[in-house]
Each structure stands twice: as structure tokens, then as C-alpha cells.
């Protein structure tokens, strides 16, 4: 099947075998369970339950983590690497909660494909839809897993129709479910004409596959009750007549998604999905950058920071920058140029996220994610190269949807507060704006919960109790234009102007009407809801 995909013979085998992807879903659809099964099949963990157990051990470490646990959400995202057959999978975890979507968006700039998990009873939910739209902006190939087929779920055609209509993408069935809920037996593998039966007794066992010669094979009668078999034959015939056949090129271009049906908790359908990722998700793709695109097979190493996480280990005040390698073969101890500052850094202790634990990365290839511990030099959007002045593009920063002012309870500690806020701004955890008029800072986030997380982290990490309070502003837009025009704009709108942590001009307001007015009356000024990280 691979030879139907445009192959790139010049790609070194180590790069060609890499699949870097994320799982997107609405909370509760089964992302954690599926991730765990991926690791189990990849031999990275011995027993299901370890990911969650480990997560819980980590969460009890601090009050902040306690809050995370209480809310039942996962604030931190990470990357996991494991082998599946001849392939190396790099699964980049995305936080599922809507309040952390900006982080998720940026994570999606570091992957070449996404697996979309939907709940068979609920179909396409709001967060799935939002994340899908982001994948679409980047034309990311998407493979779909319809989970929880062991429960009462919707009719198969209905699920497929809903995806096609809500997401405007062609859907092609890679497997077809037999029965549902209590009667769910397994799937007919439409790609390999195979019968896959689910073993309800053992949740951690791979399904039994029975090879059949099409839907008329008498072998089917031995395993499927007559009424379900009749329904299966009818439905598959109908599906083959009505639904598009799998076109690997259309999948790569993001116009078509193959769908597998299964039950993550019962380990059913997972291996087929993983085989699907190996076959239909692409190898590491070229990266857009200025002044030129970067190809993965280039011998020189380059990469970019898509996430920064502080205090992963409370005992060390380090930060880890998550770097997606865009090209080359990286070896530990390499000297890389930090393009933004022009400085050289020796990457002495890079971390590879081998499933269960952080390990020192001796080597890594294009497509891999490595963690680089640092003291704040590395920011989201930064590019690292072996000397060439390249700048990776397309890593967005979104205008916050909620704005509040922040104050230290002790006014003498405002310098400390400033330091904490700068750290969070650089980490990408919040937008920090310094208004032109008055003192203090305005913090912008995408979801309300982030204010609580920030207050809790500032308290814990800086020993600084703070208060968030409402401001008169509800929207922020980055303003740009020719220097003199921008100065004039700033002068005549002083009460609306602030600077972000990079010093860029931001226009704050409460009214959409104000924004429309600027657009109408100041054609020389551009207002933007997103900014490229730099
Ligand atoms: P996440 O929020 O997307 O990470 O979802 P989780 O993996 O935590 O799953 C949410 C809930 O659904 C948990 O209680 C799981 O045990 C349950 N679940 C996950 N997969 C399945 C499945 O295939 N069948 C059933 N019946 N429940 C499942």
C-alpha cells in the first residue's frame, strides 16, 4: 500500500520510519485510554494503568497539581516516543481541556498528522470541531478512531455522515463495526478483508484476527450470528456503493479521513489504527521557514521550540523547551545556534521522552521531539540551527479572550510579580500587557481557569500571593504599521494602548465597535488577532 504514497527516496531510512502525530478529541472521548494502549502495543509500558498512575503520582506533588487533579484535567503536555514494528512513533500529547487550547494549537505545529478520537455515542463534539479546524488550517492528515463501540452508539452511517457534514471532509471506512453495545462483536476490516473479533474477557489482549475471503466466506457464519451477519453484508455493500474508497493521496492532503471503529478500553481496533498511522500518516514533512523551507533530509540539524514548560521537576528551577527537529541527525553535545540571539549553545543534556520516563537523548532525527533544559533562553517559536539564520514560521500566538489586571497583595513585591509574569509570557502560558497609562499589568488568557492556575503558580513558584481583578477591556489586538503611523496611532489612543512582553504594540478595548472603527478610519494600521511567535 505504501507505494501508492508519493515516496521520497532521498529520505534516510531513520527519518522515513518516523511518524510524529497528536491525538485530538473532546474531553472524555478516550484519548488517555487510547494513548495508554498505544504505549502498551509499542512495548513502552507493561501494563495498562501506568500512564494514569504515574500522572497521579506526579500530580500529588504540589497544590497546583492538586488543583489539576481536582479538576480532572491535564495541564501539562508532553511527548512520548516508542517503536511500533519497523516504525518509530512520536506521540505528542495535547491538553484536552478547552481552557488550554492555545497550547494545543501550538502543539499541532509540531506534528505531521493527527488521530481524531470521537465517542461513538456522542459523535463530533465542540472541542473536536475546534481542534479539527486547526488541523485543517495546516492541511494535516487526519485518521479517525470511533471509540466506545462496546457501548450503545449511533448508527454507523449516521456517525460517518455527521463527520462528513460537520467537518466537511470525506470519510472512508477502514473497518465496519459488527453489532454495537452488548452485541458488539468486533469489526470487518475493509482494507484487508479480515474479521477482527473482540475479546471481552481480557482487555489487554490484542483482538483475534480471522482471515476471510470477502463477505461470502462461510468462515463468517461460524463467528457471527445470522442476523448480525446479514446486517453486516447489507451495510458493507451499501457503504462500498455510497462512500468514497480510500485514497492515500487525499488522506495526505487532508481531504479524506479513514475511520476505524473500536473500543480503546478493550484494546480493540487499536492495532489496526496504529497500522493505519504507519501506512497513511506521512513521514516527517518539510517545515516552512524564512528565508527558505527546511527539508527533513538536509544533513544539518535544525529545529524549533513549540512548547516551554517550567518546573517540570519541582526540585530544579529548570525549564524544558520542547523542540521538534525539522532536519538532520542530532547527536548529544552538539553545538547549535540560537538564531534569535545569534548565540551558540551546547546541547549537553537533551531529553528524549521515551514513554514512561525522561531519558538522555544520545541521538535524534528529523521528526523527533527532544527536550532541552535551559534557564529561560529558549522561547516558543525560537529556531535552532547549525549556523544558518533560518526562522521557522507559522507558530501562532492568539489574542486572549479574557483580560484581567493582576496585583501582588504586597505592593512592595511588584518587581517579583513582573518577573513571574515575564516567565509565564515566555512560556506561552499567558499574554502579559503593560498598559501605557497607569502601573500594573494586564494578563490575557483564553480560558477562565488559566487565571486560577496562574495565581496558584505565582504563589507556589514565587511565594507571591496575587489577585486577579476585572478590567474594562475584553479584547486585545496586535497593532502594526509603518513606524510613524504606528506612533501617531499610539499617541491618539493612549488609553487603549499596551505593550506585550516582546514590546509590540497592543490595542485593548471593550467594544468590537472600536476595532471596526480603527479598521475603517486608520487604513495604515493593521489590527491582528494572532501574532507569530518570534
Ligand atoms: P480522555 O478524557 O479523552 O482522555 O478520556 P479517558 O481515556 O480518560 O476516558 C474517559 C472515560 O471513558 C474513562 O472512564 C474510560 O474508562 C472510558 N473509556 C475509554 N475508552 C472506552 C471504551 O472503549 N469503552 C468504554 N465503555 N469506556 C471507555
UniProtKB/TrEMBL annotation:
User: Do you know which InterPro entries this protein is assigned to?
Assistant: EF-G-like_DII, EFG_III/V, G_TR_CS, P-loop_NTPase, PrfC, RF3_C, RF3_dom_3_sf, RF3_GTP-bd
GO terms for cellular component: cytosol
Please report the stretch or stretches of sequence annotated as the Tr-type G domain: 16-285
Is the keyword Iron assigned to this protein? no
GO molecular function terms noted in the UniProt entry? GTP binding; GTPase activity; guanosine tetraphosphate binding; translation release factor activity, codon nonspecific; translation release factor activity, codon specific
Q: What is its main location?
A: cytoplasm
Binding site residues for GTP = 25-32, 93-97, 147-150
GO biological process, alphabetically ordered: regulation of translational termination
| Classification via HAMAP family | Rel_fac_3 (MF_00072)
What does the UniProt function comment say about this protein? Increases the formation of ribosomal termination complexes and stimulates activities of RF-1 and RF-2. It binds guanine nucleotides and has strong preference for UGA stop codons. It may interact directly with the ribosome. The stimulation of RF-1 and RF-2 is significantly reduced by GTP and GDP, but not by GMP.
Query: Hey, which family's this protein in?
Result: Belongs to the TRAFAC class translation factor GTPase superfamily. Classic translation factor GTPase family. PrfC subfamily.
Under what name is this protein listed? Peptide chain release factor 3
- What is the taxonomic lineage of the source species? Bacteria, Pseudomonadati, Pseudomonadota, Alphaproteobacteria, Rhodobacterales
